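Data availability (excerpt). The following record was deposited with the supplementary files.
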Amino acid sequence: MLRVGRLVWVIALFVPGLATAAVEDAPVATVPSEVAEVYVWGKREGRIGAAASASEGQVSYGAFANRPLLRPGELAEVVPGLAVSQHSGTGKANQYFLRGFNLDHGTDFSISLDGVPLNLRTHAHGQGYLDVNGVTPELVQTIDYRKGPYFAEAGDFSAAGSAAFRTFPSLPQNFLQAQGGETGFGRLVAGLNVGEGLVGLDLTTSRGPWDRDENLRKGSLFGRFGVGDWSISALAYDARWNSTDQIPARAVASGQLSRLGTVDTTDGGKTSRFIVSARRHPDSESDTVVYLQRYSLNLWSNFTYFLVDPANGDQFEQAEDRWIVGASGYRTWRPAQSDWSFRAGAEARLDDIGKVGLYRTRARQRMSTDRQDEVREASAALWGQASWSSGPLRATLGLRGDAIHVDVNSDNRANSGHATDALFSPKLTLAWRLSPSVELYADAGRGYHSNDARGAVQTVAPVALTAVDRVPLFSAADGVEAGLRYETGALKASLSIWALRLASELVYVGDAGETESTDETDRLGAEFLLSWSPRPGINLDFSGATTRARYRGDPPGGDRIPNALEYVVTAGATVRVNPDSVAQVTLRRLGPAPLIEDNSARSSSSTVVNLAYAYTFGPTVISLDVLNLLDSRDNDITYFYASRLPGEPAEGVDDIHFHPLEPRQLRVTVRYAF
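Predicted structure:
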């Protein structure tokens, strides 16, 4: 169905179109020569007098297609300090890193699309699994981001931060866009205004740079329509792919594998997601969202090769099929002639997971079942906040209450049961505007992520059948932050210092089918953001974040938190070369990280630079993207654990396992607006 293959590459050579520079709030196809300001990541809106913290912000994307993207998940990297990587196939959810968290696939960072939560709880692969591959970047109008647990409306999976993606209610112009490149990459995107709404189509195919053909086939169809005061949205997404997972460094050093090779050539996956939602047009006074989702995943992976089963190999399948129904909303009251305002909100969600399982497989064929469960997980929340403003001072005091109930029907009766939990989370934000261009902030609050329902009722490990402890349904996080913001003319800057303590990092390990508990952790960090236009037609962006992440106390194995990046730096520059062309360059550098608790194994830093050049003539824009411009041979992600290749000792070999950055590749994009 999604085999657009080389057809897209051919279209890319002959069909016109790609919007040039981003201007505020619109992905326009042409930019008049008198418009001088162009933005790498979209316009970062001024926040003095409105923001509750130094680390929150909003990005208006304009023509997001102008920023070179290797994958849709990199859309989230507009959040300063957030890094997005991949250790497997393109169709799988990305790995996220923020504030010293290895967020795995989204455990403590949440994303919503037009008010619909995208994180998935009690997921086959990992708690909070966050797959944004179905989102079409060209249809996103704004991203609002917040960090830390200081906001009453932010719920599950938001301890480190959250981002709200909002699509265009209607497109400024219809467009047809085709993209082709090396490694068999082809993409066709179309956006069309229909009545009081829009329709978008996004088709992608790629064989990838890997020794094993990735054979990616991905399609997404999105529609949004206005009906009175409501906006009705629908998303249909489907993807299938082969995976090149992380590989052992020793196999590359010995020549058994190339850097782009794989051990198990049958790894891969398929997934689909369908969303229907209705949202009453949100504003500062009220918001209401109701939604229905249908989701499925089959994911085949092999990270240890022949360690567990020397005869058949260690491949396993993680599979699930679920329905989700939910709603959320808030309302604001502003008494006349008062310095106070009040806001109250509520949300509810039900996940009906008909089957979530972990299976031992060989070449994607099931051989045995480690565990299989049916889960129903219901949650509800009430929250409220009171805000006070007088002259240069603002303060907000909030309280959030969450309750959750789970029912698990397992193939092992010892792991069936039900559980209920509740959590109250106080919040406080303070702001003091020293001048029209300087504002100070102080924030404190509690947040959380939910834990996998299966871990809350378990009594035995699924395979070993040894006794295990149950875990609470909530894992709380307490944080504080202080910062300042400076905005004047062409210069915007912010600085924040923060601390976050987790009572316990309880994580359901989908690869093993059980829940692991860690000790209390502390994180301390700082972030700096700068956006500067030194002259018309030039825009420079920089963000830097550093974190110290440690287990509390004196753990016998060491106090380092594996994969907690020590720093993240992103930078970008946009230059309007002449009235018809613009050049952009972006840089991302990920710092080193401990790979095990005693810090004896560490990952190296990695750097990737991307370049884009776009030329406009009339309604047509042609763009050239050079991804990984310097052809860096750094790693996208690194792990340290034991695995076994044929002929190695039965206990396996402790080794670094890595997934490399994709080699340099060229992509040509043509966009026609009408």
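Summary of structural features: Confidence is low (pLDDT under 50) at residues 1-42.
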